[in-house]
Fold this sequence. Notes:
The complex is a heterodimer.
Chain A: H1 27-40, H2 54-63, H3 66-78, H4 88-101, H5 105-111
Helix pairs in contact in A: 1-2, 2-4, 3-4
Chain B: E1 5-11, H1 15-25, E2 31-34, H2 54-59, H3 108-111, H4 113-117, H5 127-141, H6 167-178, E3 184-185, H7 219-229, E4 233-236, E5 239-246, E6 252-259, E7 265-275, H8 279-288, E8 312-314, E9 317-320, E10 340-341, E11 358-361, H9 381-391, E12 395-403, E13 411-419, E14 425-430, H10 435-454, E15 458-459, E16 503-505, H11 520-539
Parallel strand pairs in B: 1-2, 1-7, 2-4, 7-16
Antiparallel strand pairs in B: 3-10, 5-6, 6-7, 8-12, 9-12, 9-15, 11-12, 13-14
Amino acid sequence: MAAVPLAAQHEHTETPAGAYTLKVFSPEERDRVAALVDQIIPRTETPGASDAKVPEFIDRRLSMDAKLKGRFLAGLRAFDGVLTEQNPFCKLLKDMTIDGYYRSKEGLTQELGWHGNTFLAEFKGCTHPEHQE
Amino acid sequence: MMQEVHDVIVIGSGASGGMAAWNLTRQGVNVLLLDAGTRFSREKFWTHVKPWEWDARVDRGEKPPQFYLDTKEQPYDTPKGQPFDLVRVWGRGGKTNVWGRVSLRYSDLDFAGPEKDSWEIPWPIRYKDIKPYYDRVDQLIGVCGGTDDQDSLPGSAYMLPAPAPRCGERLLQKAGKSIGVSIVAGRRAVLTQPHNGHPKCHFCGNCGRGCDVGAFFNSSDYLIEPAMASGKLRVMDNAVVARVLVNDEGKANGVQYFDRETGAERTLRARVVVVAASCIDSTRILLNSKSHAHPNGIGNSSDVIGRYLSEQIRFHMYGFLPELIGGPTQNDDGIGGEHIYLPRFNHRGTKRDYLRGFGAQFWGSGAQADAGFAKALPGFGVDLKTAVKKRYPALVALHPYGEVLPRADNRVKVDESHKDRYGVPVARIDYRIGDNEQKMAVEMYDTAEQVLRAARAEILPFQRGHLDVAGSAIHEHGTCRMGSDPKRSALNGFCQMHDVPNVFVVDGAAFTTASEKNPTLTILALAWRATDYLAQEMRSGRV
């Protein structure tokens, strides 16, 4: 068998995020989107959506999907600024905000407390006596 | 110069092709394995790339391993309004690089099912025929799990220790018990202790990106590498097989393939051809292998090849458990995906108004590396943010899988009007589910809801009756089925063609029925059994 590096010896160093250059939004559109996503997931004692670079996340997704880009930009231009459940643009914006925020370091680790995808020598599972049969 | 004649050519390097190559070479047979791709280099897997690092890496020009075959490179057709999601991995190990690792033995409920309900042909084998091979596969690849067997889920004496259930899983087991539904330990091909030289799982949970240490079975590291070390196996990269070639008597004598890099057409000679390119791709090769002796595709005098495509129906139901809502976030990664399984139970009690059965998986519960469920929660702002955080540690889900009956009209054809880049007709997949599946789905929905209600879960809104797009379970079977009647089946119980004794088809295409279970363990066992038989037949000079 080929040599297998031991998982425990893996370097789990992080990739630093570089500066992001907008591909789709104008600076004004970016600011408008930032204000909207912060209404969806605001800053509290933990970061909000624009702290987690959700506008940049959306810009990147739009740059990879021309159809989505057209839909999003048309929706943004026509949007009156009041978030409602019924408005299809609000739903799109909300879904993309959730995708972007809860995969960001701020959203996943600071807000949700996720600390997974790491080396564990042992997995203990549920240790609560009250959850056992 | 005479062209070299290989003992055996194996087409495909996934579970079935890897098993065929490994088992034949260890019995002294020289094998040439044709892989439609190349080896995926484990050192370059993105197993430990955090979700937020992904984009930064891509920006730097790095690429994760390209496991999945792009349909732009290799298209397939479906009728309008009848989509089928075909997932293919071309390259060493095939789909076993990224598979779900659920490893359930079929029982005689599965093998003897068709005989009992008279729907289509019976399997030519029973559990007792395949049991020794399940035992060997378990020992070879390492399957963890429990001893809480059911009549629908035969046990194994060779299980590695089951991983501890997570909180949500414990609570669902308790809830199931309260309504008479058994939820047992999962059976999965993940090493919970070091096994046969492979390291144990380190519980990072990102198995779907490929395991960077090979702590779950993949055909490349567990079968093909050892077979290559024996000196009996040669592997040819980027060899996209188009056809099995035959002599004047209609016996196979080689294959035609195209070099994936240069597009050059080549032929190879062999005494025996083992087809293991995964259900749909194998079927495409067989149907394209037309000759004077086999005008309908090789080995297809019965006209069953391409027919009886059976996948599985599936949906998802999510909920949040009250005991865990608002609680602390734990590391719930475990062995990646569920540690429990809900085996088929509908054969007990009152007779149903449909045939066959279903089981359920649970996938991840508790803290995940995203919070997609939040899209189904109402509202905006602090209320939404708070609602997501409270529910995040409490997530559980049921993912029931149901058997789809084999039907002659659910078929793969080759489309002469649509050819791939090499001029080879592509597969056309014409598949739909019927009344039996719709009726089964009713009980599947009822069961998932009852389990979650018994757990007092807050259930995320769902659309009753909705099923995933066909192909989503990635469990295609049946298009070159085995059976004892050569008029109604293409293969005998050893995966050998009735019409062409030196062609074996050893992947999911060989299954007589689909079952509700995940097929890989059974594919491995059947391929092992088939190639034991083949080696014996070669030694005796009959093949």
